[in-house]
Design brief:
Number of strands: 5
Number of helices: 4
Shape: globular
Structural class: alpha+beta
Distance between the termini: 22 Å
Order of helices and strands: HEHEHHEEE
């Protein structure tokens, strides 16, 4: 993580607001690797007015059981595991940022005028937060 920040600093001016995108990443970070600490380090490294765009898989909601089963199957076949978290756990991870409306919500709620093409419910939360 520190390497990413250091290499990014060669291209980005961290004294100016930037957008940090942690999309489909945080649910692969186990608790022992401190996902909240990772997000906090990015918040500390960026200027006020910067944004965080993040998503996180969950076993909550209508598709939760199916996603939980998929995560369990995935665990035995990959070098890393999916760590599905609740909305509250995701909120704690991104707490360094002031969330913008609609806060933490289902990914499809971030584009309510668009329909899901597959017709399936998703079990992924999304959030956008601003560093004040």
């Amino acid at each position: 993580m520190d390497t990413v920040l250091q290499q990014s600093a060669a291209l980005l001016d961290f004294s100016e607001p930037v957008a940090v995108m942690m999309v489909a990443i945080l649910h692969f970070v186990p608790e022992e690797d401190d996902p909240r600490g990772i997000v906090n380090r990015y918040a500390e490294a960026t200027a006020p007015g910067s944004y965080l765009i993040a998503s996180h898989g969950t076993a909550e909601g209508p598709a939760g059981e199916r996603v939980g089963q998929a995560a369990a199957q995935y665990e035995g076949k990959a070098n890393y595991s999916a760590h599905l978290r609740t909305k509250e756990e995701f909120a704690a991870i991104v707490a360094a940022y002031e969330l913008v409306e609609p806060g933490i919500d289902w990914t499809k709620s971030w584009r309510p005028d668009g329909a899901l093409t597959s017709g399936e419910e998703v079990a992924i939360y999304a959030a956008v937060g601003r560093k004040d």
